[in-house]
């Protein structure tokens, strides 16, 4: 039989990965002085074109219907690449979210490569304290244009991850997105040793995670004779007491829970968030979580949906420990990036409530939460990158004291993002938590929701602590200042702020979009 690839359905993934190869050739054969401009044109053109094809695929008429376990009928779009890729509503929504996050993340990363003689860096230099040598070192910016091939390959892997329709394709996508991230995490110039240590920890733990996923896939294949998710669901049926199947599900869960930063597989998160370059942390924290949760949702909703009564107790335990430990450890942090890292861990627990719900409402709530959380996270780290001292970013909490007096606008924007992370009304965080809590209650997980409310209260404390520190504490006698961002960072922060506000005030459009996305193709 002649292989059929459905190029239209696969075009966002293929465009991004092809651009990654072209980006490598640019690094090899283009003069250093012109690389940055060419790379930026390639990156933004690639992301824009990929997003266009995602929208085009979403607007295609439905090609059929499929019946899920509850007897509901939902639309299909396309099964591509010999059944290894499922292009459906949730998959397209996740791909669109990843590309939007990548565009905003690329804006943040691109600022570090602005010409040192340009107006943007001149403004930043005048606002930054320190000696002329220190300013010059800071103004050199991020001249490593080799980050862009890694960035594009990571985005390509993320686009494939949530639409993978079999275990082998999902493993390949996992490695394609992970390997570039290990390298990107090591590229901080002013914290070189800390960055390289974080990247090494990320790599070693990621290798173990991949091994668990692969071993679990082998066990599932041994039990079912197939790696395709729909066929696995049919083969498993009610074989809930099969030890091989349960072991396989557990090992696959370990591999995927590592990528979302759930406890006890979160050890890499605070180290990488602290050591990696902040613009890359913003991209990784947002886009990786979207892709990883997309894969987690697909595999547990489609492949293991018939065994929900076996894996839900495991997810209950993981969600409870993740929410509580993430919130409690965040309270003890004195570094702003490590605090946001543990906040990210806690939010992983909240999103797991959508998986525990094991229903269409749970899927919709998870998709909304991922979209809302991504832009709030991007905005938060973008603001963190602006607060500096002569040695680099000022990440110790004591250095943020009195920031509201030095720069009321930046402190106000950061306060809004913190309130959104805390789930305060009129922000996207409140709508997202309300939606996912409701889905979990409908799914019979009321005890987990009670724990989630307690964890949210704990989290509100450390968010409020930073707000009080910025506006109601005296500024220390140090050289901390807020640098003037370039237009690229201003666009990124503004976009994140607007999305966070609109999803809190007028969330209905996105709620309708996730509802219309339907269920995963089987």
Structure description:
- Helix 11 crosses helix 14, helix 14 runs antiparallel to helix 19 and helix 18 crosses helix 20.
- The protein has 522 residues and is mainly α.
- The protein is globular and about 65 Å long.
Question: Short summary of the structure?
Answer:
By secondary structure, the chain is mainly alpha-helical. The chain is about 70% helix and about 5% strand.
Structural class of the helix and strand makeup? mainly alpha
The coarse silhouette is globular
Give the N-to-C terminal Cα separation. Answer: 22 Å
Question: Could you tell me the strand content as a percent range?
Answer: under 5%
Unreliable runs, pLDDT <50, ≥5 residues?
64-75, 113-142
Give the integer mean of the pLDDT values.
84
Summary tags:
21 helices; 522 residues; mainly alpha; 3-stranded antiparallel beta sheet; 4% strand; two-stranded antiparallel sheet; 72% helix
List the helices and strands and how they pair.
Elements: H1 7-29, H2 32-59, E1 64-67, E2 73-76, E3 78-80, E4 85-87, H3 89-111, H4 119-127, H5 132-139, H6 147-160, H7 167-184, H8 192-224, H9 229-236, H10 243-260, H11 268-275, H12 278-303, H13 308-331, H14 336-357, H15 360-384, E5 387-389, E6 392-393, H16 403-406, H17 408-422, H18 428-442, H19 446-472, E7 481-482, H20 487-505, H21 508-516
Antiparallel strand pairs: 1-2, 3-4, 5-6, 5-7
Helix pairs in contact: 1-2, 1-6, 2-3, 3-6, 3-12, 3-15, 3-20, 4-5, 6-7, 6-12, 7-8, 7-12, 8-9, 8-10, 8-11, 10-12, 11-14, 12-14, 12-15, 13-14, 13-19, 14-15, 14-18, 14-19, 15-17, 15-18, 15-20, 15-21, 17-19, 18-19, 18-20
């Amino acid at each position: 039989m002649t292989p059929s690839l459905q190029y239209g359905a696969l075009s966002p993934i293929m465009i991004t990965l092809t651009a990654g190869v072209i980006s490598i050739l640019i690094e090899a054969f283009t003069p250093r002085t012109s690389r940055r401009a060419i790379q930026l044109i390639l990156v933004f053109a690639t992301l824009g074109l990929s997003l266009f094809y995602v929208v085009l695929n979403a607007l295609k008429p439905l090609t059929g219907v499929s019946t899920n376990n509850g007897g509901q009928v939902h639309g299909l779009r396309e099964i591509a690449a010999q059944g290894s890729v499922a292009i459906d509503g949730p998959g397209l929504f996740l791909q669109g979210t990843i590309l939007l996050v990548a565009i905003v993340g690329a804006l943040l990363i691109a600022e570090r490569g602005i010409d040192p003689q340009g107006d943007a860096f001149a403004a930043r230099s005048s606002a930054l304290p320190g000696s002329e040598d220190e300013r010059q070192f800071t103004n050199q910016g991020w001249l490593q244009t080799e980050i862009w091939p890694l960035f594009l390959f990571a985005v390509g892997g993320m686009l494939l991850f949530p639409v993978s329709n079999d275990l082998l394709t999902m493993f390949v996508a996992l490695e394609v997105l992970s390997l570039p991230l290990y390298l990107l995490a090591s590229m901080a110039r002013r914290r070189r040793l800390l960055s390289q240590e974080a990247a090494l920890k990320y790599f070693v733990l990621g290798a173990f995670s991949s091994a668990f996923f692969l071993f679990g896939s082998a066990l599932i294949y041994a039990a079912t004779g197939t790696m395709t998710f729909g066929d696995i669901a049919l083969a498993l049926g009610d074989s809930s007491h099969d030890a091989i199947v349960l072991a396989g599900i557990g090992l696959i869960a370990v591999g995927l829970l590592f990528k979302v930063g759930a406890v006890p597989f979160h050890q890499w998160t605070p180290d990488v968030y602290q050591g990696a370059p902040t613009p890359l942390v913003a991209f990784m924290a947002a886009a990786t979580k979207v892709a990883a949760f997309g894969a987690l949702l697909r595999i547990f909703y489609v492949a293991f949906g018939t065994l929900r009564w076996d894996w839900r107790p495991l997810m209950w335990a993981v969600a409870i420990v993740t929410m509580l430990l993430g919130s409690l450890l965040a309270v003890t942090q004195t570094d702003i990036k490590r605090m946001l890292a543990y906040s990210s861990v806690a939010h992983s627990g909240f999103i797991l409530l959508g998986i525990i719900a094991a229903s269409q409402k749970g899927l919709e709530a998870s998709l909304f939460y991922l979209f809302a959380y991504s832009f709030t996270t991007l905005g938060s780290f973008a603001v963190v990158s602006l607060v500096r001292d002569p040695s680099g970013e000022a990440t110790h909490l004591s250095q943020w004291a009195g920031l509201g007096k030095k720069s009321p606008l930046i402190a106000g924007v950061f306060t809004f993002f913190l309130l959104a992370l805390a789930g305060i009304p009129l922000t996207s965080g409140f709508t997202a938590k309300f939606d996912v809590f409701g889905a979990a209650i409908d799914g019979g997980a009321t005890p987990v929701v009670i724990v989630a409310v307690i964890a949210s209260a704990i989290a509100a404390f450390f968010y409020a602590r930073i707000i009080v520190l910025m506006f109601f504490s005296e500024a220390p006698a140090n050289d901390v200042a807020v640098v003037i961002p370039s237009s690229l960072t201003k666009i990124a922060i503004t976009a994140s702020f607007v999305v966070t506000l609109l999803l809190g005030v007028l969330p209905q459009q996105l709620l309708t979009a996730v509802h219309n996305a339907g269920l995963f193709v089987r």
